[in-house]
Amino acid sequence: MAERVEQRLEDRIPELEQLERVGLFTRKEIRAVLRKASALEYKIQRRALRKEDFINYIQYEVNLLELIKKRRARIGYSFKKDEIEYSIIHRVHSLFNRATGKWKDDVQLWLSHVAFCKQWNAKHQLSKVFATMLAIHSNKPELWIMAAKWEMETRLSSESARHLFLRALRFHPECPKLYQEYFRMELMHAEKQRKEKKEFEQAKMDLGEFNYSEEILNGEMARIVYRDASQKIKGVKFQLAVLSIAKLFDFTQDLQKEILESLQARYADDPLTWDYMARRELELGPLQPTEHTTKQKKVSEMAQREERGCAVFDEAVRAVPTEDMWKCYITFCLERYNRKTNSEELKQKRLERTLNVFSKAHESNLLSEALYKQWLQLLLDCNHSEKAVEVAEAATRHFSQSVEMWQLRLQVLIQLKRDDVTQCFEEAIKHVKSKGTLPLWTLWVEWSEGTNSKEDTEALYQRSLHATTPAESVTMKEMYLDWTYRNCGYKKVKRLFTSLCENRPFSLDFFRKMIQIEKEQESCKMLHLREYYERALREFGSTNTDLWLDYIKEELSHPQGKPENCGSIHWRAMKMLQGDLVEDFVSKYTLLQTGHL
Question: What is the pLDDT of residue 209?
């Protein structure tokens, strides 16, 4: 091993001598480089190789290259690159080759090599890297696309890019992304040839030796790719993706027309098809173009485009009366309404149209729960209070089991200060199953606190404890305890705490709240605090270290505390805590004893 390391270090000597001779590095820096290189070489020559050692070595060499680049710029010296940089670059390639040979499955390692090749413009080496990587990772379409794009955009070789895409499609015959990028590549190739031909014609050069096929110039290769793909890949999304690519090129009108006709013929029942056709109306220009357009004309023109789009949607909901179709229509209207405009007339027209579409979807019983929420929010924002109440009631009829829908209806009634809030709460609790009703009960008691008498609110709290599931009642107990202390005082909350402790489950916050209430009293009694801590530890003593530590702190700091109890508390904690919590408790207790906690 030592002989190999020495040989590699000797191979470095010519480049290091050049670095010193031309003044890029000092003698001291050269020695430091040799020491570091020697240490790194020994690590990658061991029998048990580690990936991190190779990565560190590569990173060191890359940093060295960057330093040389900065030093060259500083002193203005640009010669001897063959003897210095290219030697280091060759060594980095060798390191990458060894690493990727050992850890073939690490895609990130391959991509790092690719990035290095691109950074230092090693085109020939990069072609080899892509070839080896794709032979191993042929199951990853994104790598094929990366390689083909590099061939097309950097090496300007459409033939190589096409060859890579065809090979990739043999491995992934139904990959939409591969077909999309292949389609894009063929259109880019056609555009490139069109530009070349135009430049030759402008220069009045003879095109005899150049063969520009009219079919390729018109995008026929892309058409073939599209037709092949559309037979294998079903779905509107792929068709729309291909169409959006074709629209980027100004010579694809016929191709766009073919894709659009195929879309309408094969996917006439798909909401996305109608959605595209409606939005397409927004992009179409005016029927009679004018040279000078005023702001009023622009507004009028936009209104006409939106009307045409809505006409398409009106036809769509008649042809395909589904929930998804109405969702597309409403989403379109909401997007248009939310667009900024200085024209109040246009904004009002958009609002009326949106509300009208919501009403029609509701009448058809094809409005989803999420859209009901959006409708209600829009009505409230526009101060249509009575309509909002009506819609909220209809929504809860339609989704009578939905807690969120009832919650929304109740919030509307509370916001509008209606008299039938209590009646609506009762109706909601009757319709919704007990599991999951916690949001309704919390909303009800919060509303009652600010509206009803103390007696009514207390009765409601008591009722909620029996109506909710045991897990949900935990939250209600915390809220009940807090409300009682705020409104009825210490004695009442102490009796309530004792009463609530008769029925499990509890939360840690429930006990901590009572401890905090006791500590807020002028005559805070340690006897009571011990009772609360002991109750809490019975429930959470095996899983919470902080509770034990707080108990110990209380005994140490309270005027009525007994520091001699700390030993027994510590002993009990060590017995009760589970697993790693014991070690955590010991370390925290040590910090407490030394005054660092």
Answer: 58
